[in-house]
Design goal:
The complex is a heterodimer of chains A (540) and B (316).
Chain A (H helix, E strand, L loop, with lengths): L13 H17 L2 H6 L9 E6 L28 E3 L5 E3 L2 E6 L5 E6 L13 H12 L6 H6 L3 E8 L2 E6 L6 H4 L26 E7 L3 E6 L18 E6 L3 H9 L5 E2 L7 H8 L3 E16 L14 H11 L2 H7 L31 H10 L6 E7 L3 H16 L3 E7 L1 H10 L4 E7 L5 H7 L5 H6 L5 H11 L4 H18 L2 E14 L2 E2 L10 E2 L2 E2 L4 E2 L2
Chain B lengths: L1 H9 L1 H18 L4 H6 L7 H10 L6 H12 L14 H36 L4 H15 L2 H15 L15 H35 L2 H8 L4 H29 L3 H6 L5 H10 L3 H29 L7
Helix pairs in contact in B: 2-14, 6-7, 6-9, 6-11, 6-14, 7-9, 8-9, 9-11, 11-14, 13-14
The chains are: A alpha+beta (540), B mainly alpha (316).
Chain lengths: 540, 316
Amino acid sequence: MTDEAIKKGPERTRRSFLTATTALAGAALVGLPAMADARKRNPKRGGTVRFGTRDDSVGLDTHRNFIYFVSHPLSGITGGLLDFDGEMNVVPGIASEWDSSKDLKTWTFKLRHGAEFHNGETVDANAVKWNLERIKDPKIGHSFTRSALSDLERVTVDDKYTVRCHLKDPSAAFDSNVVYYPVNLMAPGAVDKADTAPVGCGPFKFKSWKRFDTCELVRFENFWETDKDGNTLPYLDGLIGKPKKEDRVRLTALRAGEVDLIDNVAYADAPSFIKDYGKTFDTWQVPQVGTAFVAFNLKNGPFSEKDNPDALMLRTAAAHAIDHQAIHEAIFNNQGEIAKGFYSPSSPWYSKDIASWPQYDPDKAKAMRKKAKDGDAKILIIANDSYPYMHQSGELVHAMLKDAGFNVVFEIHPTPVVQDKYNKGTFDLDSSANSYRIDPDGWFSRSILSTAPETRRRHGYKNEKVDQLILAARVERDRAKRRQMYADVDSLINKDLPLVYTHFVSLLQAGTKKVHGYKPAFTGPFQYAGGGLRTTWIDS
Amino acid sequence: MLAYVIRRIAYLVPVLLVLTIVVFTFVELLPGNIIDTLIGTEGNDDPEVRKILEKEYGLDQPIYVRYAKWLYRAVQGDFGNSLVTRRPVALELLSGIPATVYLAIVGISLSMLIAVPLGTIAAVRRNTPVDYTAQVSSLIGISIPEFWFAILCVLFFSLYLGWLPSSGYASPFDDFWGSLKFLILPAAAVGFRQAAYTTRLTRSSMLDEMNKEYVDTARSLGLSERKVIFKYTLRNAMIPTITISGLQLANLLGGTVVLESIFAWPGIGRAIFEAILQRDYPLVQAGVLVLGVIVVIMNLLVDLTYRYLNPRVKLG
């Protein structure tokens, strides 16, 4: 069990408690609206932040669609059983306390009383059960959201505010899977409006959405969270999301005063922006939004042991050809850090005890490639066009492998084509990335464990020792031990080379000086317990 | 005339039928499908779940069965729901069409307002500094990529001068004067390039007409030069200009993805482009239908304009 396993929600001060109860008595005479007035308000509250983002949700149903907590303004309406703080530690959300059984197969969540959905429905145990079951429905739940509940067998309700999750297999990481991203809660009574006017329980309420244009949210007055002084959150009156896919368009909008905050400054622009506009704008470094890597196809082809007895030698040759420093300088513009494992030094899961991948050595790469069988085979590198760093890294790796004498071609494709190539195994190398996982089990169990559907589909890596470590870490309560186990897995990955970690994907967020109290969580989410846009206010 | 119009509208049916078959087939032939889109870059693909989803989205049926079902619903006005947003396709298109129509009409109007006078003056004052200026300007306009010009406009008018917003959209029905602010730069980007083509075309059409005998006849009858140019010559010279402008307008009504991205303009072009990338078949099909109707109607309007400009032109 983690140190934070049993937590209580924030306690009101005695004075604010008395104020509230006195007001409640009055409210009983004059009606419920008085309840909101009794809640303490920060004198700095108010204003609407215009948030320029590189992306936008494709739909409004927060179960069906992937609602990214860094770049999708709609994420402002989402809330979950649990929350996370600025350091990505799991903290109470709608559940004020939680605990697991000794065998880690049953997790009990005690819900805070009085938490509401945006339409006034109570967030009770039945609502939570309904939500989890809806997400688990393969016809509804987005695959990313659903995968967070892949261990969940059934949900039972003990009483109005106690819900119990029964897992198929024990897991020490289950609590990290029920934070609001991605397992968010929506109002059961508003499910018929899920695609047009979603009703969540997050700090902001949905107001309107025009695809590719705006996403408008307003403050949820009855949000359960307060700041350390007992003031209600969020402070802002509203949030207007302005999706602007092109990096320069977004940055221009910030500089022209059309938006107050942007989620990402392009790597090429970041150094000059800080230098030239550091006094006019505030900037926030996000050390790790994800981890970029180059994955090999181990199911078939020259890098697969099935087809080539020298596959490991060939993968090692390719790894020696990759100049990580060049990727750091050319693609990421010296922003962020080179990755040797999945977690960066900023993460609580980071370990320095990871054996490195093969160092950049082009002569060794050439020699090994010549020696290996199928060293002259035609190799296809693919990259997704979704994010510039993915296909730029792919392009650079292509050039590096070519220099080492590999017969490589490089293709950039949209998501459906890349997925199709995974399904058919018609690629040899894939320049890709995966977003940060609050718990390492989220990455290793889903993308490294040999029995995971995604591992089997994508690269087909299989190592018994790696599987043993991942499965053991999943049921280990001691955090330090878990960290070491995952470090050992990363060491084995750097030896077997199913993939080569290249770089941590960092971000630079920027905003005008009018925006106060804002700081993204260290992996980029713009709203989290006690921070982000929940505690932001803006000068009028 | 009425019979001609009715006949031309009736041509819509076979044209659209062929168009939808071709587009349906091509999109189907693209690798990947909607399920791959829904999985995204972070999802996990479970083969068992994939089978369930294929059944849910009808992808387990042969292509001709899916097309027939779509066609049956489409003729009743039901284009179904977007597979991605799950909102009615009609709603998705309607939310993008006003922005595109607004930009296209204003862009083309701007280009005509610039190109017709400039091309006419250049032809009338042939081989003078005015003519040379018009020719060089139009050559520059044709040579400069639209998106580059758009970025220059944004840099100059938004960032440096601060006169206009760099991107965004406001509906003219909500706030007409406010919407103009957002419209000026994208319309200028659209209009500038179109004006360059149209200027050259107007100039050369005018030169052709001015060499014709009826012009000499009109002059010898004592008509003023202004009347000869604007009442007779220009009217005839406008036929090719109208043709090109009509085609340009039809093209613009299909949306310009690049400009819509630069200016964050929520038009139909980007919606259809994203739908193709995401394999959102109902939205692609309905979008193509709408574009097909637009092109056919635009061609009809262009032909009817010929008749107005030159009553000797026989239609049909």
